[in-house]
Amino acid sequence: MITPIDELLTDDSQFRQWLMSNRAEIVGYVDEGEGCPLANWLFECTDQTYHVTRIYYGMTGCNTVLPSWARDFVHLLEMLPAQTAINGRDALELLDGILALELLDGILAYAY
Fold it and tell me: At residue 69, what are phi and psi to the nearest 5 degrees?
């Protein structure tokens, strides 16, 4: 059964749209389970507090596996210095970096 939260996380398009709407605003922080950009976006969409880790998300503990684009985003985010404030523009650059890496992986896989 697909839930509304599953639909939000199907791909990065709705998250990307939110980031674009908040380019100049702080959308979250590095190393903040409930304060990272992804958790803040989920809160804005659902009015529920979510905790997000590199692999999982959930309201009461992290118990649901994030889709690959979200795991990659959180992983790249955590490479930045702890407690760094992230605005929408910076978060979009991270997402664009993920897309570029996925395209490169696809090209390399096809070449070999």
Answer: -65, -40
